[in-house]
Design brief:
111 residues; 2 strands
Length: 111
């Protein structure tokens, strides 16, 4: 919940800065996460807060979702590219995730 709140505040700040620079902001931002319980509890209006120490983050994220500023989307841990930088990975999982961001070599056109 804390990471969700920090991400939402960062998105709101970036949207504001871009608007001040004259960039039109169309639609909402998409925030991917692998914590399905956080995504469900902040996107469904019928859900309720279970832990009181998460109240500030919970309400901040819910407010952004209700305002249409951010859309929370579940991304399974197997496909989460952020794991490359945040978790120790074995060679197979590292290679699988790197396929999503690795650029192929371009042929040399010097001839």
């Amino acid at each position: 919940m804390v990471a969700g709140r920090i991400s939402v505040e960062f998105l709101i700040d970036m949207r504001y800065k871009l608007r001040m620079l004259g960039v039109p902001i169309i639609g909402s931002c998409v925030l991917f996460g692998d914590n399905q319980s956080m995504i469900v509890s902040t996107t469904l209006p019928s859900s309720s807060l279970k832990k009181k120490h998460n109240a500030i983050g919970y309400h901040r994220v819910r407010e952004a979702v209700a305002a249409g500023v951010v859309d929370l989307v579940y991304c399974p841990s197997e496909d989460n590219l952020a794991d490359i930088l945040t978790n120790p990975l074995g060679p197979n999982k590292f290679a699988h995730l790197m396929r999503g961001i690795h650029f192929p070599e371009f042929p040399n056109n010097d001839s």
